[in-house]
């Protein structure tokens, strides 16, 4: 029985590993790229470091719902693709995309409205708060692009395709962002300019993922 069980589960385990490896590699690369970005921020002084650290907390009320929409998309697509209902997959992706964008726009507007208070909760230094506000006004209006990226990438994963979105994210969110940050650092930069690279790489990554979906016809 044990031998038969191993033969039965072997292909399933292999499929899980092959699906998970690109996602794991993507996560590791994002962590490493964030370390390099943090290094550049650390060179800009105490106030920049404080503002950037708080920024990473203030963005969470927007970031986590986007992740949730991506997970919902992936689960929905996987279930319906497994059932062979492609039309329902397409409709579900479209619905998740619209809801994700609307939710992100609403949350971004809310956080921009309470931005001063949000930063004030963590640091009463007005210089830090000013830097933080400049960062969120440079990025939050464009956060809906990240919602597009997340839903489209997770839609592909729902179809069982994890390599293509992982490559798109690695090239844009990791490599391109680090290159842009380093190029800015050559001529001197500010923490606001560093965070301004985020919407740029969200956009290029989203375009890449959508192009992959069209090329793979999923």
What does this structure look like?
With 218 residues, the chain is mainly alpha-helical. It is 89% helix and 0% strand. The chain is built from nine helices and no strands. Helix 1 (2-42) runs parallel beside helix 8 and helix 2 (46-58) packs across helix 5. The longest helix has 41 residues, at 2-42. The protein is globular. The two termini are 39 Å apart. The model has no long low-confidence stretch (mean pLDDT 92).
Q: TL;DR?
A:
This protein has 218 residues and is an all-alpha fold.
Tally the helices.
9
Q: Quickly give the structural class.
A: mainly alpha
Give the strand content: under 5%
- The general outline is globular
Radius of gyration: 20 Å
Number of strands: 0
Q: Say what oligomer this is.
A: single chain
What keyword list fits this structure?
218 residues, mainly alpha
Could you give the topology of this structure?
Elements: H1 2-42, H2 46-58, H3 60-82, H4 86-113, H5 115-122, H6 126-139, H7 143-158, H8 163-186, H9 191-216
């Amino acid at each position: 029985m044990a031998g038969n069980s191993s033969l039965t589960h072997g292909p399933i385990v292999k499929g899980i590993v092959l699906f998970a490896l690109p996602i794991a590699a993507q996560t590791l690369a994002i962590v490493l790229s964030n370390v390099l970005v943090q290094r550049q921020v650390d060179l800009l002084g105490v106030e920049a470091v404080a503002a950037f650290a708080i920024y990473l907390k203030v963005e969470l009320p927007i970031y986590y719902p986007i992740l949730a929409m991506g997970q919902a998309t992936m689960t929905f697509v996987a279930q319906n693709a497994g059932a062979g209902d492609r039309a329902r997959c397409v409709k579900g992706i479209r619905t998740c995309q619209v809801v994700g964008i609307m939710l992100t726009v609403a949350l971004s507007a809310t956080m921009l409205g309470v931005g001063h208070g949000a930063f004030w909760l963590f640091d009463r230094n007005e210089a830090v708060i000013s830097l933080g506000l400049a960062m969120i006004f440079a990025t939050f209006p464009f956060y809906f692009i990240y919602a597009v990226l997340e839903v489209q990438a997770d839609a592909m994963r729902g179809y069982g395709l994890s390599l293509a979105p992982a490559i798109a994210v690695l090239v844009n969110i990791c490599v391109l962002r680090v290159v842009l940050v380093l190029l800015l650092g050559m001529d001197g930069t500010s923490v606001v300019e560093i965070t301004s690279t985020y919407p740029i790489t969200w956009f290029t990554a989203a375009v890449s993922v959508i192009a992959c979906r069209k090329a793979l016809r999923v």
